[in-house]
Amino acid sequence: MFLRPAAALSFALLFAAGCSEEEPTGADASTPMDAEEEAEAGFPDARRADLGVRDSGRPDRGVEADAGGDFNDDFDTAQPMNLGGNNAIDGVIDPAGDVDFYRLDLSNGSGFLVFDTEGNEDGDDAKVDTVLQIYNEARELVAQNDDHLLGTTGTLDSEIVYHVKQGVYYVKVQDYSTFGMNQTPRGNPDLTYSVSVFQPGGSIVTVDPEAGDTFATAPEMNQQGFGYVMGTFRDIADVDHYKVIVTDTGAQTFVIDMMPLGPTGFGATPTGVLTFYNADGTIVEARGDVTRDEFEPLQPSLVGGRTYILEITQSATVAGPNDFYVLKGLSYGDNDPSMDVEPENNTMMGAEPLVMLPATADAPRRAFFLSHLGDDDEDYFSVETSGAEELSVACGSLTAGSGIQDLSVQVLTSTGGVVGAAQELPPDNLFLPTVTSTGTLFIRFFKTAQDPENVGDFYRCGVRANIE
Length: 468
Known about the structure:
Distance between the termini: 38 Å
CATH class of the largest domain: Mainly Beta
Number of strands: 30
Low-confidence stretches: 1-23, 25-69
Number of helices: 3
Oligomer: single chain
CATH architecture of the largest domain: Sandwich
Strand content: 35-45%
Radius of gyration: 24 Å
Structural class: mainly beta
């Protein structure tokens, strides 16, 4: 299934993007439905329909289901599949260790396609946990995904957005129990799924028109609190821009991340740097290298009602064989906006009490907040801990796109004694795992410098009172 936005997050999420080249065609290529078609068809999932796939439940396409491990278990017996959300194929992982292969013939053109499985959006351990892999005509692995990345909670379905070229592609579907290390392969008639390949489109997808190379020509990013951006780099010097309009009021977190690179990711070859500018491109609000497995997603704190420009550049110096990018992004209300007004909490005497959420069966007492560190600024917060609790602190600033350098934290007793300290060391976030002192504790945040080219001075933190 396609990516579904999560309800609420404290850190990180997604966005995605595209490129406007000649659309690939196949035996039964189809174009995304418009809103009127979606409404007439009565599709229950608007986000899924927006991305161009028909979602009316399985089985709904009249395509004969894979009988299970008997005729499409390798490249040579791969089952033909057609392009288009209406042409999804129903399959089953049966018997144990079964793998299913499908063949997609693209007669001409190049562009973005979505490869998608549906069968376990709720993360039920008794259902199939698909792993999706794409191979080129030479039968070389070019892309891979286990579970949806960023913006979903709990789903065990798979999704890849890949930039294809003319030729033959193979799609391999298996259960994680066959793919993962130290697993016992599963298989039974209940491990059912559907697999489809279709062109992305709709109200939450933006495809690079190759006309947004300047601030003035930047196209508006399509989003409804969540969206995809897909694009290509013409050459190593190509730069793409998108206009981001924050329609909600108040401070908003806009989390945007580049999907994993290479054959064990979405198959793209470039590394990427994202920069958020103000509307006229004169001030950098946030900047970060968002290549997966390097830095966290870019997470600037944006102001409602304003327009920003997102710039995408390559950090590599040599062009790769398939230089495309897929971004996923989400905007939502910022962590505890009350912290965003910068009270006079720059001394222990003026420390602002943290309002901790109550403990639940799954989580200890905790607080999440956004704050800012201006020039020569320090922030102090206070928290009460009991004898059974151990305090931990996790924060992101430079790793999230801020211009803060060397974000540091100290945990102090009421007499000023330091009982814990940590510093952000990119690509790792700041993390202070355990402070065992009890009573009233003071948490001090400070920085050593500010990037002169990045005015973003925000940082986000989570504080937990763990019980061991």
